[in-house]
Amino acid sequence: MSNEKKSLKTLEHGRAHFAFECVENAINVLGNKKGEYKSYVKKIPMLIKTNGLGLTFAFILSKKAKSKAYEIIGENILNWLKRDEKRILKDASKIENFDGLVKTVTMLESSEYMALSNEVLAFFNWLRRFAEGLIEDEEDKNRGDGNNEE
């Protein structure tokens, strides 16, 4: 296996492992509101593709004061970017909170903005998968009880 393939595999493993930890943490912190987290995590990639990363981050910023799930999602994004081996945001370790990340995103060059958007989407791909797998919602319960007749 070439070094490039190994590093891509390692990067994907890192994203997957961190995303799994994020979802487990959200389940523990949110308790019976974990379904909100799942719903928002599923929605955010489409928001990024439709509106761009900056507007999506502004949306999360506006909602996080009212919803712990959005606050956790913002923390998930920032903490992943701090761990990101590619160092798309060179000074990510100096950013203290999601508000600081939003401010940083508004000052990025176009190429950095695009690279960051792609990285956040790649992270959400794992986050969405694990949220769907680990968080059962009412719709899932109704389908999975074996008593559904169609």
Automatic annotation (TrEMBL):
Q: Where is the signal peptide?
A: none
Task: List the keywords (alphabetical).
Answer: Antiviral defense, Cytoplasm
Q: Does the keyword Cytoplasm apply?
A: yes
The source's superkingdom equals Bacteria
The subcellular location is: Cytoplasm
The similarity annotation says: Belongs to the CRISPR system Cmr5 family.
Protein's UniProt name: CRISPR type III-B/RAMP module-associated protein Cmr5
